[in-house]
Design brief:
The protein is α/β, with parallel strands linked by helices and about 325 residues long. It is built from 14 helices and 7 strands. The chain folds into 3 domains: about 140 residues, Conserved hypothetical protein from pyrococcus furiosus pfu- 392566-001, ParB domain (Alpha-Beta Complex), CATH 3.90.1530; about 70 residues, no CATH class; about 50 residues, no CATH class.
């Protein structure tokens, strides 16, 4: 049976922990391409072998969803690599002038800190879409992403690479509800997203305040969560209280909009008549018992003109 290529083989094949890591005489040289009727980016001979590649010939993955790397943990990994070497190969693909990481950026960074000249790699013939998706999946399966990085990665899969939420769910082994709730975090203001990203508050805290319409109130609650170390349950109670407080204001706005819509045709006709007489915008607000008439002006000369017009009208 022919070998499947790309993502079809699954991550177990991609990360191939059991692959022998044996440096070959020409390991630092770039693997040669197969020549024939058509050149292939990765030869069959090199596709499953562990190759030692010059660390300076490898560049980071442009589609890497992970933005934050813990420097202390990187230093610990670098010490381990000095003592034991790189146990698990990096996954790379060919790019202009060298190679691009598909998976293993943390190991690559730590190897640089450890002073390695070459690192063990498995070469894969991935296109841009596969490259980005494997980077996202690898980080999520290893739980290396913070909630906001994860949300951005999931959003990229759906919006940039055309995955449905169901396909994302199947690829990651996570429920569709989990996927949807994760992406919803991106509705939070950027400052609150940073709180979640840095671990000052959890993703569950963030989801609790998403539906508060007032951004200032969201920030106020987020600061209380951090300052008072509120539990998610306490945050839910506080969020419900704030939403209840905001309801009267929403009702007032809705009523004002409804009143405008329900303004009688007769009043609208009077407004138009007065606009013709005064030469400016006129608004009538009120009911049968009381109200007001507003005339707009945009300069001192226009105000004086309106005053003269009204004086003449009442002579």
């Amino acid at each position: 049976m022919a070998k499947k290529s790309g993502l079809g083989r699954g991550l177990d094949a991609l990360f191939a922990d059991a692959a022998p890591i044996i440096e070959e005489p020409a390991a630092a040289e770039k693997p040669s391409k197969v020549k024939g009727k058509k050149e292939e980016a990765v030869s069959v001979e090199n596709e499953d072998r562990v190759l030692y590649i010059d660390i300076n010939d490898i560049k980071p993955n442009s589609a890497q969803p992970r933005k934050n790397f813990d420097e202390e943990k990187l230093a610990e990994l670098a010490n381990s690599i000095r003592a034991n070497g790189v146990i698990q190969p990096l996954i790379v693909r060919e790019s202009a002038g060298g190679y691009e990481l598909v998976a293993g950026e943390r190991r690559w960074r730590a190897s640089r800190q450890a002073g390695l000249r070459t690192v063990p790699c498995i070469l894969r013939n991935f296109d841009d879409r596969q490259n980005a998706i494997v980077a996202i999946i690898e980080n999520m399966q290893r739980e290396d992403l913070d909630p906001i990085e994860e949300a951005l990665g999931l959003k990229s899969m759906t919006e940039k690479y055309g995955f449905t939420q169901e396909q994302v769910s199947e690829s990651l082994g996570r429920s569709r509800t989990y996927i949807a709730n994760s992406i919803r975090l991106l509705k939070l203001p950027e400052e609150i997203q940073q709180y979640v990203s840095s671990g000052q508050m959890s993703a569950a805290h963030g989801r609790t305040i998403i539906n508060i319409s007032d951004k200032a109130k969201q920030k106020e609650i987020a600061d209380k969560i951090i300052r008072n170390d509120l539990s998610v349950r306490a945050t839910e109670r506080l969020a419900e209280k704030v939403k209840d407080e905001l309801k009267p204001e929403r009702r007032r706005r809705k009523k004002a909009a409804a009143d405008d819509k329900a303004k009688s045709a007769e009043i609208a006709a009077v407004e138009r008549e007065l606009m013709t007489l005064t030469g400016t915008k006129v608004r009538i607000d009120g009911d049968d018992s009381k109200g007001k008439i507003e005339l707009e002006y945009y300069s001192l000369d226009e105000l004086n003109r309106l005053i003269d017009t009204l004086r003449d009208a009442f002579k």
